[in-house]
Amino acid sequence: MGYFDRSGPSMMEAATGTRLMFGLALLSLALGTATALPLEVAKSELDSTKDKQVTFVNYEGPQAVIESDAAIRGIGSNLATAIGKPEGRPARAGDPDRYAVRRVIGPEAASWLDADIIIIGKDAVVDHIANIRRIVAGYLQTAWGYSRRDADLIAVFVTVYNAVYRGDVAYFGDRYKPEVMKELPAGSAGLSKNWKEWAGQTRIVIPLSAGAVPGAAGAVSTGTISEKAVTETMKELPGGGIGERQALVDIKEKEVAQGQATAEKAKTEAVVAAKAAVEATAKLATATAALEQAKAAAAPPPASTPPPTPLPPAAAAPEQPSTTQAAAVNTTPAPAAVAAAEKAVAEATVAAASAQASAEVKAAAAEKAVAVVEEKKAEVAVDRTNIAQDQNSQIAKEIAAGAVDESSGIWLFEIVDAGYPYARIAFVDATTGKTFRTSVINTIHSRSIVDAGDVYVAVAGKAEGTGAIRLVAIDKKTLVQTAQGTVDIHPESTVTKIGEVFFACIKAPDGKYYLGRFDATLAETARSAEAVNPMTFVVQDPDGVVAQAATGGFSAFDAKSLAMVRKLGL
Amino acid sequence: MRRGLTPVLLLLGFAIGATELPPLFRLPTGGLPMTSPVLDASLTPAAIWFLSDDRSLYLLSEKAALLLKFPLEQPRKFLAVDTSGRAIVLVDVLPGGQTRGKPPYLMAITRGGIIAWAQGLGDFVPSGETVEGAAFGFDGRMLLLSGAKLRCVSAAGKSLWDVALPGAAACKPCTDGAGNFLVASGKESGEGGAEPILTLYSPYGVVLARYGSEKTGAVQATALSAFALAGPSGAAGLADGRVLLLATETGSVRSLEAVGATKPIVDLEFDGKLLVALDAGGTLGVWDAGGQPLWRAETGASEGRLTLLSQRVIVTGRGTALTFTRAGDLLRQATITNAASAPLVSPSGLIFSAGVDWVLAAYEFEPAPGPYSLPRHVPYPKDRSVVAQLLNRDGAINLEERQVALVTDIEKRFDSGRIGASEATDRAVLEAIINGDFATSGGQADPRYRMFIQPRSDACRVLGKMGSPQAVRALLAMVETEPDPAMRAAALNAIGDIGLDPEGVCGYPFARMALLERLDDEVAWALIGAIEAISLASGKPPSALMTRALVGLSGPPYGLMVRERAKASIAKVAGSSGQ
């Protein structure tokens, strides 16, 4: 089996020994074509120390047939198409001798999972984990509506998950419904680390969330495929599997968002149902009251009233109708009203009971939906915390590995120009000669450098083109320029530090040179009125500073104002 | 004089290339950034607040210490830092399932992880939306923007006034040099279109000035920055790349030419001396305070952000950072790997960048950037004219019932969130009642002043409720001069309710009271409460004087209950400063 473009879907390569140059190893996926060429197997680098460490061993060698990424994904996609839309019942599709799928849905059970099981049959010729993942990803895209990116990521976790729990029937039995276990013989449950054990011995379990529906986030139980054992295993891979785990967190966040929408809808429905139940109960109360009224109206009059003495029929009849006759007129409609009221009560009772039951079901559903969301949020929070902790560990390792002992460092001034002492500053390990860092600026006039504690101050630059020669300050720790003067300086000027200020020779527009005083930011604070020799040394004296005048001789200047104090004969 | 970038590069005879910065320290944050990091420079060292997708609020000091990780329940995408250095966040659920009105809840969290206050904004922020921007007044009040609505809340989160904008806001509001708020919004022009409006609001919600399209040109503002170290002035960046210089006192508007190729301004900084604008194409333009162009540079910084410091102009974009002198010399350019957004620059020159790898990293970038150019805070002027008016016109003002009625009316309006423009006068009235200014003779010496416990006590309570730190001095004066322990306690309780002492005026009086007086237990209790409230609500460690006050109260001659309360308070504030 093979694939010509490795740069596509494989987000997590198998560990050491399996990453080969793209142009060297062409792997083929032979659909129905058994490769006749002898196969060379790369030396496997199975882990030997940790039971749960997963290093897939793939076939690495010449291939007879090269299949495209689309074709390989198509295997999974075709299986999904064949098995049809999930309808909450078991289903089967495919050829068990090559590629097949079982959708195993059992009766609802609180903590047990349903599963899709992808079967790699005895005649299947898949020999690279990347292609297993393509098949799984293709299946997930078509069966459950995942995007390609999400399907690829989940496929990585599914394969690692199945490898971690390969043959662990006890584990599967603890997590999956009995119906699923019937499809998982011990010898083929999960995925072997070695490609030679895939054909005919592989049943890849894809755990499904309760109520999984295509197109909705969370069809695959992402919590299951990212259990601690799986993520611990992924830490052993290059990069610690951090990128993949972060991407899975993004998928879980989509599940949370969707779950919240579902929960909100369920809560709304629960509220509506509760309101309906209240209304139904009120109607029942009303009907019951009406029944009581009807019964009261239908009750016979009190016994204390004596029956009337019957009169001669001829005289009495027209004027005093008998009470019996009157009683007969009064009691005839009452039982009907009572019966009607009783019927109304009965109907209201049924309605109230039904509404109450519905409200309870809706409330329970809302509560469950909220609980599912809270559980997923908690899971995401744990994932994020674990990722941060692992990143901390990685950072600590990087720091330890890269820690540089600079205690032997010295600053050197490297001449970079054969014709002039332009220099840059280099911080070098005096013991090993290794350069820790160098200054970017490389036009320092090396004879002018002054150590000013935390910085070096010097004359730098070239008076060429738009360039200029100025005072600069270079931070010793970083060798980054921190300040720059704004007045032109003579290229041969010295820099003298007295106290916290600096003295150097300024080149003025009149072509002459004057002694300049500069503060720590290299801003000019004073300038002599008398021109000086641009190459003069500057010496401190009791009154201030002394420099050689342009006309000869020496002059003493006030240290602050640079006003000439006196001439010194020589 | 304008200079481009190229001459700057050749100045020293070498080319400045971008260097990749190695991280100084890194903090895994469990998720991508929900918002950009924000700086709290209220203490030294400065600290960075950061809101992550893992629903946690982080506080990281410049010295690489993780000061706080505060879990939030369903935070929305909003994070700001108030004038006391507290993080302001918006959440759907309060810790412990508490309620404070209708969600979402605006919360202030101190460096020590204490929730200083929480208020419901359900009547202001629509469902699923968030607060889009905030500006801060000089007494800690906040102007919040959501859609086409503004709400001003006090430093304690209580609603002060609301304004409906003429149209949707164009960008975040900002504060000018006088503590007024500048807001950019649209307004229906009656021709089916929208006209941009810049409006200047007083701290009390009164419109001070409006700049319509006749002054701004018919282009929407995209960025606002408005403060000055001397005098109120403002600047607005527009969608066509122009920048407006506003003199808010005179109402004049000056339009400066576009920074680059007419791309929207994305960030703007103005410190009264230098005006700096960055457009969406990464072109940086710099003017002086008079609007004279100084220099510009092409930075290439996408999604850029500006930081204007006393010695530097720093531009950061996603994955890049450049630092210039204020004269325009490019000193350094660096690249940052894995950046998720434009990084933040701290006063010590560190860059904090949130990464797409869920790691917040700090890089050494600028060793000597100089301090931030922050506006000088000027207290809002008090309006005591109402006191004179009441004395002149209200013949019953010296009666207790009348004063009680006044306080009640003020409290009602405040509780309804409608105190608005009358806040300054109302506060003046309350302070006048406390001071006994309405006693028609004798002032505080008037014996009737002493008898009016009810209105003075109520006035203290309402001042505390209103939460303006500007009332602290008046309350403190009452604490110091009032002989009645109940009145002193009422004033101290009000100071505690305000919870802020930005001017640091409480330390000495509190220490003197605790150490040199033998306080009534009620007063001592209230004093402890005030010190504790100020320490916990502000998140800053108590001053040495306040600490001494607590220590003084924790021993004889105070009774056991006061002593135990003081000791408990010492332990509580000692563990909460989060520095």
Rg over CA atoms of chain B: 25 Å
Count of helical regions of chain B? 13
Helix content of chain B: 10-25%
Anisotropy-based shape of chain B: globular
How would you characterize this protein structure?
The complex is a heterodimer of chains A (570) and B (579). Chain A is α+β, with helices and mostly antiparallel strands. Chain A has helices at 69-83, 129-144, 148-164, 169-175, 178-181, 222-225, 228-234, 242-298, 313-316, 323-331, 334-402, and strands spanning 91-94, 99-104, 114-120, 202-208, 409-415, 422-429, 435-438, 444-445, 450-451, 455-460, 470-475, 481-484, 496-498, 501-507, 513-518, 524-531, 539-541, 544-548, 554-558, 564-568. In chain A, helix 1 (69-83) crosses helix 2. The longest helix of chain A is centred in the middle third of the chain and has 69 residues, at 334-402. Chain B has 579 residues and is of the alpha+beta class. In chain B, helix 7 (453-466) runs parallel beside helix 9 (485-498) and helix 12 runs antiparallel to helix 13. Chains A and B meet through helix 8, helix 11, strand 11 and strand 12 of A and loops of B.
Would you summarize the structure shown here?
Chain A has helices spanning 69-83, 129-144, 148-164, 169-175, 178-181, 222-225, 228-234, 242-298, 313-316, 323-331, 334-402, and strands at residues 91-94, 99-104, 114-120, 202-208, 409-415, 422-429, 435-438, 444-445, 450-451, 455-460, 470-475, 481-484, 496-498, 501-507, 513-518, 524-531, 539-541, 544-548, 554-558, 564-568. Chain A is α+β, with helices and mostly antiparallel strands. In chain B, 55% of the residues are buried.
